[in-house]
Amino acid sequence: AGLALNDVQFSSCAVGNREERCPNEDEFFHCQFTKVCIPIYKLCDLADDCGDASDEDPAYCASHDYKLFNFETQSPYTDLFKQDPTADIVWEVGRGEDSVAVAPRFDHTNFDQYSRFLYLPLDKGQPGTKARIISKPFMASKTCTPKFFYHMYGLELGTLQVWARYEDGSQVGDNFVRTVSELNVWRRGLLDNLVALHPFEIVVEGSIGLKSVGDIAIDDFSFSPGCSFYTGPWNGDNVTTAGPTTDTTSSGSNCHSDEFLCPVDKTCISKDFVCNFRKDCGEYDLADEENCPTPICTFENRTRCNWEVVHQPKFTWELSQGTVSGPPSIPKPSEDTTLHTNEGYYMWVADTSDSTSFTEIMTYSLGHLAPSCKLRFNYWL
């Protein structure tokens, strides 16, 4: 078998420009190491918007009364939610490595295939079949903002709805509704302008669509300082609340061992700023980005754009063209996707072995990147 890659592109990866101070401290947070100014509403929401995790520092978030919940505990959803027994089906706990056809291949908390999220089992019902989870109740508040991340990717998936309701079931505030695919990314959702005059709970409902080819998933709920748990009677029960989970991402570095020397002005920057698609050494000193993958790589300059090939004894990645013949038994692209001619270059690997093996192409370890960072590429298989 053969495999080819072309037009590899990183987009929206730099966290932003370094600022000496933020224009309005009431509206912006000054990130500790990257020195970027981010809006206050992006604080403590289980997303590293600073690129150095200072906006998600557990001590800061706890001291400012943010409440953070992911699904990484042994009882993933019971810290905050319970399944609605009146629903048709239940939200299920998933991980990317489970390779479930109706679930994402990665979570939002750690962006890997090992961490957990909740997904709607689209293959276990008919169109209109619903699953619901209900949060523990919160106290009346005019400043509570619930936030979360959701993943909807596919065709005619169905509907994701999130809303707040009082004990009697009546809705309070606007509901959050999504019905269309949002590409293979995790996106922010929130209940904004929520004014609750009485204790309330959060409802998350997923409804199966007509085709349901793809996934509907949720992850990482966070609550602003105006959100406090209600511990009084609720639907005939005395309510107790378990402590929220917190993001354990650490920030900061050891000054000497974790720094990079900028050769022009002899200043030191954190190694976390090396290969982050931003000129942290200065406008005229590109040393911190010198050996890093270029934002766009078409391979037309006959280089690998600082992608490192990990060689294997039997086969490996190599630059090639449509004009170059491969092994007779293995098909090969006749043209690239940049120039669309047989003279264009791409990366190519041909497996001529009889046993299972692999080869890799990888970048130098990248620095702190923005959560909006995307890697796009064309492939031939």
Number of helices: 1
Q: Based on CA inertia axes, which overall geometry fits? A: globular
Kindly report the oligomeric state of this protein. Answer: single chain
Count the E strands. 24
Mean pLDDT: 87
Regions with little confidence, pLDDT below 50 for 5+ residues = 238-254
| End-to-end Cα distance | 8 Å
Radius of gyration: 24 Å
The largest pleated sheet is described as: 6 strands, antiparallel
Strand content: 25-35%
**Helical proportion?**
under 10%
Order of helices and strands, N to C? Answer: EEEHEEEEEEEEEEEEEEEEEEEEE
Alpha-beta classification: mainly beta
Model description:
2% of the residues lie in helices and 32% in strands. With 381 residues, it is mainly β. Strands 4, 6, 7, 9, 12 and 14 form a six-stranded antiparallel β-sheet that branches. The longest helix is centred in the first third of the chain and has 6 residues, at 58-63. It starts with a strand and ends with a strand. Mean pLDDT is 87; it is low at 238-254.
Salient structural properties:
mainly beta, single chain
Summary, kept brief:
With about 375 residues, the chain is mainly beta. The chain has one helix at about 60-65, and strands at about 1-10, 30, 35-40, 65-70, 80-85, 90-95, 115-120, 130-135, 145-155, 160-165, 170-180, 185-190, 200-210, 215-225, 235, 235-240, 260, 270, 295, 310, 320, 345-350, 360, 375-380.
